Amino acid sequence: MNDNKVVLCASSKYEEKYYLNPEFDRLPDAIKDELKAMCVLFTEDIGGIITLEFDEDGHLNFVTIADEDDILYDEIGCALKIKQYQQTKRELMESLELFYKVFILGEDIPVE
User: Fold this and answer.
1) Is the pTM of this model over 0.85?
2) If 48 and its partner were Cys, which of 2, 58, 66, 102 is the partner (CB 3.0–4.6 Å)?
């Protein structure tokens, strides 16, 4: 398993908690609020736990898990909701990936 992942944020229906990685405190408050709303609404609607994680290439991924005995977890709804977020929040996701590459990984981004 590859451990070169960095969690941006997470929400848990089980613990009713939201987490934002302190490395991303520099994000504008509006972005932080949008991430929190996305994650918390996801776990309220679907259940389980969702994390937004950057892989080693700087791509942002949705990762979900649920307790094995969680009969309320909506597996089909999970896939649909993630697809919806990938479409409706594409600009936000791309901006977060750019932020991560520049400010966390220290990459130089060529200016066009």
Assistant:
1) yes
2) 66
